[in-house]
Amino acid sequence: MEDIEFLESIEAEVLRMGGGVKKGSIAKWELEAAQEIRVSIRPPRQLSSTELFTLRKLDPGEYRLMLIAVPRKAEGNGANDRINHLGYSVHDDISALKDKT
């Protein structure tokens, strides 16, 4: 239950900052079969996509997945400044994020 509260607190802060959140889950068998999670963007009129990042070398298991989009500028402050105020950076991995809560 603690994990759910952690994710909900991130979601609430991102929405307050004018961003967006998409949540999902990954089953153990999906991660074992795929061995990595990729996130990419594709404009509507373009066939190719641009890979943003890839998560590799995750231990097999069930994962909650959360993609957050935070505006670069929010209320005159940089989004990274607002997130750092929460105690983490957008570049931290999820295990480091979870350890800090």
Describe this structure in words.
This protein has 101 residues and is an alpha+beta fold. It has helices at residues 2-16, 28-34, 79-85, 94-99; strands at residues 20-26, 36-41, 50-56, 63-69, 73-74, 77-78. The strands form 3 sheets. The chain has a two-stranded antiparallel ribbon with strand order 1-4. Strands 2-3 form a two-stranded antiparallel ribbon. A two-stranded antiparallel ribbon has the order 5-6. The longest helix has 15 residues, at 2-16. The protein starts with a helix and ends with a helix.
What is the strand and helix layout of this fold?
Layout: H1 2-16, E1 20-26, H2 28-34, E2 36-41, E3 50-56, E4 63-69, E5 73-74, E6 77-78, H3 79-85, H4 94-99
> Total strand count, please?
6
Mean pLDDT: 77
Largest sheet: 2 strands, antiparallel
> Reading side by side through the largest sheet, how are the strands ordered?
1-4
Short summary:
This protein is an alpha+beta fold and 101 residues long. The protein is built from four helices and six strands.
List keywords for this structure.
101 residues, alpha+beta, two-stranded antiparallel sheet, 4 helices
